[in-house]
Design goal:
alpha+beta, D-amino Acid Aminotransferase, Chain A, domain 1, 9-stranded mixed beta sheet, 6-stranded antiparallel beta sheet, 29% strand, globular, binds pyridoxal-5'-phosphate
Length: 282
Amino acid sequence: MRTCWINGQFVPESEAKLSIFDRGVLFGDGVYEVAAVFQGRLLDADLHLARLTRSLGEIGMPAPASNDTLLEVMQSLATTNGIDEGLVYLQVTRGEAERDFPFPTTVKPSVFAYARPKKLSDDPNAAGVAVHVVPDLRWARCDIKSTSMLAQVLAKQAARAAGTFEAMMQEDGLVTEGGSSTLWIVKDGVTYTRPLSSDILAGITRDVAIALAIDVSMPLVQRAFTVDQAVAADECFLTSATSFVLPITRIDDTVVGNGTPGPVTQRLREAYLDRARRLTTV
Ligand code: PLP
């Protein structure tokens, strides 16, 4: 039986309970983070917690605990659950209150976290995944890592129904991002990803990948690209905390490039894995 953490206590997952009046349940009034566990250690948890602090601030929610405490809890969940490669999920909701859209300022946030194993270094998806193009039906504050995610649920369900791994969300022909990932293309040796704005989440993996690309003098431009440009690209890939860097080898019915992981994608995935190994070696 796995152990999770809820409102200050470690308990078996089956014993963790949230009220039906929790605003996370009633309104999706909450924010969350997902950090990778690699070699048994949290990866970039400080960056994830900094983004959590920002998300909390943007929706006027107090921090449920210090980031040091949350860091300790997250690492402890990875360790006690014997996770070598996997993830820790952390969610903060506005808390329990009588149902009313405006929130009482005195309500105490609910907070919980759990860990799961997942293959990261030896991910079978590193051979290449397919994506399905869907309209981006989300709200105007995609920079907040909110738990209100019905649009992504439907986008990723449509992607799965189409036999693909991820949604490629687009608005007016421009790619915004994946259902739960940042999207990139490579054309004529230049790597492109959308610039930060309220249209996309500031991916932690995106930031790290940009830094790695700069380190090795890989030409990179932060510019939005169209679905047509993605389809005509030499390479396409996605990034996320629990996928690292994954090649996209098909967009709906169109094979990308020659249908195999391209050199830029592979180089970036290797660089990402090297960094992850280095950072988590104790
Ligand atoms: N974009 C969206 C909409 C996401 O949900 C995620 C991750 O869940 C990402 C991008 C990638 O962000 P990160 O690299 O921090 O995992």
